[in-house]
Specification:
CATH class of the largest domain: Alpha Beta
Order of helices and strands: HHHHEHEHHEHEEEHEEH
Largest sheet: 6 strands, mixed
CATH topology of the largest domain: Aminopeptidase
CATH architecture of the largest domain: 3-Layer(aba) Sandwich
Strand order of the largest sheet: 2-1-3-8-6-7
Number of domains: 2
Helix content: 40-55%
Shape: elongated
Strand content: 5-15%
Number of strands: 8
Structural class: alpha/beta
């Protein structure tokens, strides 16, 4: 009995010593760490430190951009992976024939748009009957950002604004309208027609209606390289089942000519559709200035789409100015 009691006493003493040793060790470590922490003078450049923190988060931010870029430029560069500077939109793309299509884009000295007064009210309505049509996927999916034709509409809106032309992007979901009316995907143009009518009712200044799409297939996705930049190609779609399609055709032909003037390889031309299996109207009976433009295909990157949208913005500007100035003269 005495031996058992002695063993218990020795174990308690041993345990007590271990605990005391552990407390002393932790306490000593804390004192030593605190002593040396206060003695070390850490000198680090604030700019480098902030750059490190931001780059570590997303891998590409530059501190100078945080202070120098406006919100749109910052969004394009870091949310969409694109760079945009204020003077890029002013650069002119010119080519006189097909042989020159692969040569560098000519940059004109005078910026486009300065000779005309900015249009304060929105005159362009950008919408997407097929809002979920997407482009080549990349790491942006991790941030819940999808490269769709809807994103393309927002980018085009910003480039038009730089030229003094105000546009509205349709934010309502076509899918919601389809579901509300129990319509299938094939009725997308029927659904977007309701959005067209509502937009015009709420914004009487709207005059030009552009339905942006993305095509499919290898031909549609084939990019062209000009001056070390890749561009998606454009395709204009005309519905022949529109009773007044000749008026829409006139506008499409002029737009196609203006794109060719920038670079003949940027356009895939005009396709005319009617008959079984196609819509045949594409809401172009809504106005003679209603156009369906397909930009690239599913394998084009958002950067290629962006480069083409810069050109398209200038083309639309020239086209609209021809009409507006012509009407003023008449």
């Amino acid at each position: 009995m005495k031996k058992r009691f002695k063993r218990r006493t020795k174990f308690k003493i041993y345990l007590f010593r271990v605990i005391i040793f552990g407390v002393i060790t932790i306490f000593s470590f804390g004192l030593i760490f605190h002593f040396f922490y206060n003695k070390i003078n850490i000198n680090i450049d604030n700019t480098k430190y902030l750059n490190y923190l931001v780059q570590d988060a997303l891998g590409s931010y530059e501190l100078g951009d945080i202070t120098s870029l406006n919100s749109t430029e910052f969004l394009l560069k870091y949310s969409l992976g694109l760079e945009k500077s204020a003077n890029l939109i002013a650069k002119e793309v010119t080519s006189t024939n097909e042989e020159e299509a692969s040569e560098e884009l000519e940059v004109k000295e005078e910026p486009i748009g300065e000779e005309n007064e900015p249009i304060k009210e929105p005159i362009i309505y950008l919408y997407n009957s097929h809002q979920t049509e997407g482009y080549k996927t990349n790491f942006l999916e991790n941030f819940n950002i999808n490269n769709t034709v809807l994103i393309a509409s927002y980018i085009l809106k910003e480039y038009l604004a730089d030229l003094g032309i105000q546009a509205i992007v349709e934010e309502n979901k076509v899918k919601d309208i389809l579901n509300a009316h129990n319509w299938k995907y094939g009725s997308s143009y029927k659904a977007s027609r309701l959005l067209l009518e509502d937009a015009k009712k709420n914004n009487p200044s709207l005059k030009y209606f552009i339905d942006l799409h993305r095509d499919a297939g290898e031909t549609a996705s084939k990019a062209i390289t000009i001056a070390d930049k890749n561009y998606a190609r454009l395709l204009f779609v005309l519905g022949l089942e529109n009773p007044n399609y000749e008026k829409n055709l006139k506008g499409i032909e002029r737009l196609n000519e203006l794109v060719k003037a920038e670079n003949v390889s940027l356009t895939r031309g005009i396709t005319k559709k009617q008959g079984k299996g196609v819509n045949g109207v594409y809401n172009q009976d809504f106005s003679e200035y209603t156009y369906l433009i397909e930009i690239g295909g599913e394998n084009n990157t958002i950067e290629e789409i962006n480069n083409t949208l810069k050109v398209l913005a200038k083309v639309l500007y020239k086209y609209i100015m021809e009409i507006e100035n012509g009407e003023k003269e008449n």
